[in-house]
Design brief:
Blueprint lengths: L6 E4 L5 H10 L1 E3 L9 H9 L3 E3 L8 H5 L7 E3 L10 H6 L3 E3 L6 H16 L2 H9 L20 E5 L3 H12 L3 E5 L6 H7 L1 E3 L3 H7 L2 E4 L13 H6 L5 E4 L8 H10 L4 E4 L10 H4 L4 E3 L8 H19 L14
Parallel strand pairs: 1-2, 1-3, 3-4, 4-5, 6-7, 6-9, 7-8, 9-10, 10-11, 11-12
The structure holds (2R)-2,3-dihydroxypropanoic acid.
Length: 328
């Protein structure tokens, strides 16, 4: 007798090749348009599927998980961050959660470097001048930025992405410093030539560039609060490709406006698309629409990870990328 196929709901449009493979393997419900599901669509979905495949745009909170009933067994998140999922309630309800780590690492680290360079070398100002047709030719003092080689980069969060940033930044001649919940093993530290700072305050006060690479959890919310931002050197730059909630966006905006921090490169925002409007007015910031991991290759690999997690679960094993709260 053939085994009944798992019922899988995918909340957003995914690359076609991923949707096709999902349809071959499972009894899958896909989206027709690429808008996030409404709360009531999510609620319907969660009651009627074995596996939900959400993205970071879906808030899977305790009230929603509580509506799931007995059917839902796995939330196979399409993405690495799981801060939009109430992990504790999922666990209490016996629902496993998996994610897609590793395949976004290089793309996000590349974008971190792009932001560091864009801010320190004033690329948006140069682009704006060209787009307005205002360029009058080369001049010795025009748009002088700073050289990143020799500068101190402080990485807040030295997981996979933080380490990938460290490797790239070292190749650009930057000096690597980091703060992390756990100190790296000596061999990794020495391979990365990275200096560990137990005190985040002390590290922040001495860096030329600060890169946020830690996940958003209750303990990292506003880790860069107004008090810590004030410790930064006035000529320092902050780059965030992780989660907006780690930085107090209003405090950062105030300090950028007053010149107490030289510049910022942001790919993520504290309140999602509701960006502090004052940030958009500043010429010393580069703002991107959460596209750090946005490569076609990465999105397909994320889909492949989702499929492997669901398939492994369907075969009666733990999904290889099961997220356990201790990992966060
Ligand atoms: C993730 O997967 O959590 C990333 O933020 C998406 O870019």
């Amino acid at each position: 007798m053939s085994k009944q196929r798992l019922s899988v709901v995918v909340t957003r449009r995914l690359p076609e090749v991923v949707e096709t493979r999902l349809s071959e393997l499972f009894d899958v419900r896909l989206r027709d348009d690429d808008t996030p599901m409404t709360r009531s669509e999510l609620s319907d979905a969660i009651k009627t599927c074995d596996v939900l495949v959400p993205t970071l745009t879906d808030v899977i909170d305790n009230a929603l998980i509580a509506q799931a009933g007995d059917r839902l067994k796995l939330i196979a998140n399409y993405g690495a961050g799981v801060d939009h999922i109430d992990m504790a309630t999922a666990r209490q309800n016996g629902v496993l959660v998996s994610n897609t780590p590793g395949v976004l690492t290089d793309d996000t680290a590349d974008m971190t470097m792009a932001l560091i360079l864009a801010v320190t070398r004033r690329m948006p100002e140069g682009m704006a001048q060209m787009q307005r047709g205002e360029w009058t030719g080369w001049a010795p003092n025009a748009l002088l930025g700073g050289r990143i080689s020799g500068r101190r980069l402080g990485i807040l969060g030295m997981g996979r992405i933080g380490q990938a940033v460290a490797r790239r930044a070292a190749a650009f001649g930057m000096q690597i410093h980091y703060h992390n919940r756990k100190r790296l093993r000596p061999e990794i530290e020495s391979e990365l030539q990275a200096t560990y700072w137990e005190s985040l305050d002390q590290m922040v006060a001495r860096m030329d560039v600060l890169s946020i690479n830690c996940p958003h959890t209750p303990s990292t919310f506003h880790l860069m609060n107004a008090r810590r931002l004030k410790l930064m050197k006035p000529d320092a730059v902050l780059v965030n490709t992780s989660r907006g909630e780690v930085v107090d966006e209003n405090a950062l905006t105030r300090m950028l406006r007053s010149g107490d921090i030289k510049g910022a490169g942001l790919d993520v925002y504290e309140h999602g698309v509701e960006i502090n409007p004052r940030l958009r007015e500043l010429s010393n910031v580069v703002l991107l629409p959460h596209m750090g991991s946005a490569t076609l290759e990465g999105r397909v690999e994320m889909g492949e990870k989702v499929i492997i997690n669901i398939k492994t679960f369907n075969d009666g094993h733990r999904p290889p990328d099961q997220v356990v709260p201790a990992m966060l």
